[in-house]
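Phosphatidylglycerol/phosphatidylinositol transfer protein
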Amino acid sequence: MYARQRYKMCYTRITFAAGLRPQAHRAPSHVMKAGFVFLALAASAVAQKVTIASPAANTEVKAGGNLLVEIDRPDTQTPSTDVAIMIGLQPCGAAGDCDAVAANYARVLFHGPYTPKPVEGHADISHNYTVKIPRNTAAGRALLQVAHFFYMGAGNQPQMETLNTVIQITA
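Tokens:
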């Protein structure tokens, strides 16, 4: 027993002299666990981001007219399955403050499947939708909103992302 204690003391002195600490088998700290969760969430956010490729910001659209909405998604390394898209329109009001109305989808113009396909000469996969702007939409700034529903990862975690762009409604 004395020899074992002496060996342990000698090992500890050599380890500390070399600038190392003996490794104990412990569960990861809360900080490490939180870090792993953060990295996983960041990876999922980056992995699936769709974009509104068309219309461009501030595109003029006539009330009662049709609008082509192109939703693009880059190819991802994270396994994911697209489920649906919801496209909405929210007038920004008399003051033109679109940030104040961004949380609501006042008029749902489309809801249904999102099945992007490769497009020749285009890096991302894409799906086009033609939506009708209601005839009674007030002229001025309006928020074109998109909600994208999908699931991803080994556990098929359901996810939703939202994005929007401002368009100009004309009479």
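The CA atoms of residues 73 and 143 lie 21 Å apart.
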